[in-house]
Amino acid sequence: MNKGSNEGLQRRSVPRLSAKALRLLIGASRLALVRRAAAKIVRDHLGISAAVALDAGLRSPMPLYYETLKARPNRSYDSSLGLPASPTAVASAGNWSDAFASGATDPVAAVRQVIAEADRLKSATPSMNCFSYIDEEGAMRDAVASRERWRSGQPLGPLDGVVVPIKEMASIQGSAFRLGTSFLPDRDDRDATAVARLRAAGAIILGQTPMTEMGMSAMGVNVHRNMPCNAHAANRGAGGSSTGSAVAVASGLAPVTLACDGGGSIRMPASFNGIFGIKPTAGRVSRDRDGFGGTLDHFGPIGASAHDLAVFLEACAGPDELDPITSAGPKVQPGEFVTALGRGVRGLRIGVLQAEIDAADSAVAKACREALTALEAEGAQLVDVSWDLAPFASGIGFIIISLETYAELLEQRRDPGVSLNPDFEFFLQALSAFEANDYIDALCLRRTLQEQCAELLRHVDVLALPTTVGVAPKISHREMAEGFSDLHELRRACRFTLQGNLTGLPCGQAPVGTGEAGLPVGLQIVGDAFDEASVLAVMAHLERMGVASLRKARIAANPLGA
Question: I need a labelling partner for 175 at 20 to 30 A (CA). Which of 308, 341, 371, 527 fits?
Answer without folding.
Answer: 308
